[in-house]
Here is the input.
Amino acid sequence: MVYISSYLLLVAAFFIGIHLTRSLLHYFSVKRSLRSIPGPNPSSILWGEEWALYHTAPGSQYVKWHREYGKIVKFRGALGHQALSIIDPRAITYILGEGAYNFPKPDGVRAWFKATLGEGILWTEGKELHERQRRLLAPAMSKQSVRNLTPLFYETSSRMAASWCKLVENSNTDQAEVEITSWAGRFALDTIIIAAFSCDFGFLSGHHQSLLAAIDGLTNNENKLSSFYMRALFWVFPDIISIGTKGEMIRLTKHELGKIASTMWRDAKIAGDIDRKDLMSLMLRAISDSGDNISEEETVAQMRTVISAGYETISALIAWVLYELAIHSEIQTHLRKEIVTSGKSELSMDELNCLPFLDGVIKETLRLHPPIIENHHQAAETINLPISEPLTGSTEPQIIIPKGTIIAIPVNVIQTDPSVYGDDAHLFRPERWLERQKEGIRHGREIFAFSEGPRACIGKTFALTELKVLVTTLLRQFQFSLSCTHDIEAFQSFVIRPRVRGEGPSSLPLVIQKI
Here is the structure.
């Protein structure tokens, strides 16, 4: 037995040695290939720049780096892995366009999506598989589908407004303080589940709180050191997301979302109602028309993805747009006037899109508060990446990206570029969009929050219409303001959320006054 144990230890040591040798060779190869690219010296030998990225204002490090080093910046992550931050327009066009399938999501990001949602469209890579999944989801997210869902958006918006009216009535005054992020999450979850399955779980009415807590708790409490360790290390060790308390939360959330989707999938299959307009029915119809043999688990993974995206991004955007309106009373008044003078209490999707100031408010919110602040990719192979102009000391408008290199595209830097938006790019000013339209100013990449190319967000029209319906419904009934006792900051969870400075999870207490 002693000899066997010694032999196993030698074998284990041998393979560990091979792994370490390969890692070191790759590290020095990447370091040599990227030596001409400027960037900061690592602030930590162990963590690289991860500590600074996690503990400073979201996106602020990228702003600082690109201001100092230019459009392509090299930085180091945990355990010395090399990464690039890129805002060069030619490089981004290539990464997201013609070279999209050579720059998949990093292994850690894919492991996260697989663990939380399953093998759906956010996990899938490769041109053929991705295009297949996108074709099956496209009918459910088409403009016509969203047109049909617009009355539902009004229904859930009116339900939340009615609840807020009761809060004001019960306050014995003409106003009440409302915790916006909680209500935004309940609204977004109610809306996406009704849209997906024609089933009302009653989150706005206070039902199914355990399910809401499971979904919200996974990504909305990132102030613990364990969350930092996971975020810093999953680029190098993707399996880290499956261990500890976080791993248990991931499995619970995946199970709860899967239970909903599986039940609704089976009910839809049994009902076989071809006239239903919910997202599940439209997707099942697309599957049937395509002749593809799609498993229940693959369908469930897609619906988990739809629910998660419809909850996370929308709830964050709702909070940020109401925050900006609350601190800019003149903008709120201007927008309310446009809404009221539109002539109808409920506008169609096309009519909503004809309100220019509303469009400006939504675009400006997306510009300054993109829910996903970093677009991450990984080089699937060593690639010559075209760039707009040669780096200092080179004559070639390209750089060599070694296989496995992590690439971050910082959305906040792109969307606050003074060369595109002017010296006031840091200010919330919706009228800039009307001015740009009047002057015929148009840049190819103005709002990058939904990405672009074949991997662009398929739910963009759904999200924008839902948000516009809610804003028009609420501004007809309420005046919003921020109490002077609250200082609001942005913090990094799965998406960028607001919170009262120093608190843990998201929080945005606003004063609502009935009009």
Remarks:
- The radius of gyration is 24 Å.
- The CA atoms of residues 29 and 402 lie 8 Å apart.
- The chain has a mean pLDDT of 89.
- DSSP finds 20 helices and eleven strands in the chain.
